[in-house]
Amino acid sequence: xxxxxxxxxxxxxxxxxxxxxxxxxxxxxxxxxxxxxxxxxxxxxxxxxxxxxxxxxxxxxxxxxxxxxxxxxxxxxxxxxxxxxxxxxxxxxxxxxxxxxxxxxxxxxxxxxxxxxxxxxxxxxxxxxxxxxxxxxxxxxxxxxxxxxxxxx
Length: 153
Known about the structure:
0% strand; DUF6238; DUF6238 family protein; globular; single chain; 6 helices
């Protein structure tokens, strides 16, 4: 007999991931301990990995929700597109941060035509290109344009 998890035990890994993000956000909050540490490339690489994992989750949730509940599936698909835009911005920020001094000239941008020098540039660019391929198969260029919210009265 298969037992369903209790509601408080449902999705324990998502709860742990959310708790980890909340903890990290609190750790970055200003404190009396001194000035905050600047963000580095490794930090953005880990954040990008988290965002791409969320992209996969949202994509699957939208696919599973759409047949029985089309409107809810469309909202999840829209959230997926917006998350892709945020993921792209994190990727762009990664390339604008300084890396190691000897690699700065070579790794200051994403060059899909050649392999980056190594981690973390290699991993973030490969991850981003793979995620972009999935996103572009399911979305139109119009959907990927920056989204603006205007107050409608």
